[in-house]
Amino acid sequence: MLELVCSKARCFNEKKYDATPFNNLDMEAVSKELHQGGFQRHGWEMLMNGATGKKINAQIFIGPTYYQRLKHMVADKYHQRSTGITQTLTRQPTEGRSKEGGLRSNEAFVIILIALV
């Protein structure tokens, strides 16, 4: 919530804000700056319905946020196998995705998988 209010205030002034949770940000000062910029003091907005053009009968808290996309995607990490190469000594699947290997499941994990089916 701090990030939303501070980023909205940043849209019309050049002041930098630290919206991290463990700081001493003066929210009263940020609220005054929002009010001076023509916004409601706490970041609430009245929105219009885009289809009908009528005003939505609720105050909505909106503001710009900044985020970063996660580099590791599940589709890149996921692999499985039902048959394939096994090690001669242990008769377990070979290790690693590059060797078309599998994962050895312990007993607790197998019980969970059986319970899900």
Shape: elongated
Order of helices and strands: HHEEHH
**Strand order within the widest sheet?**
1-2
Overall pLDDT confidence = 78
- Gap between N and C termini: 42 Å
As for the number of domains, it is 2
Characterize the main sheet.
2 strands, antiparallel
Derived from helix and strand composition plus strand pairing, the structural class reads alpha+beta
What's the total helix number?
A: 4
> Are there runs of 5+ residues with pLDDT below 50, and where?
none
Helix content: 25-40%
Description of the structure:
It is a single chain. The protein has 117 residues and is α+β, with helices and mostly antiparallel strands. It folds into 2 domains: 2-61, no CATH class; 73-117, no CATH class. Helix content is 28%, strand content 10%. It contains 4 helices and 2 strands, in the order H-H-E-E-H-H. Strands 1-2 form a two-stranded antiparallel ribbon. Helix 1 (2-10) packs across helix 2. The radius of gyration is 27 Å and the shape is elongated. The two termini are 42 Å apart.
Topology:
Layout: H1 2-10, H2 27-36, E1 44-48, E2 55-61, H3 74-77, H4 107-116
Antiparallel strand pairs: 1-2
Helix pairs in contact: 1-2
Key words describing this protein structure:
28% helix; alpha+beta; 2 domains; two-stranded antiparallel ribbon; 117 residues
Short description:
The protein contains 4 helices and 2 strands. It has 117 residues and is of the alpha+beta class. A two-stranded antiparallel sheet has the order 1-2.
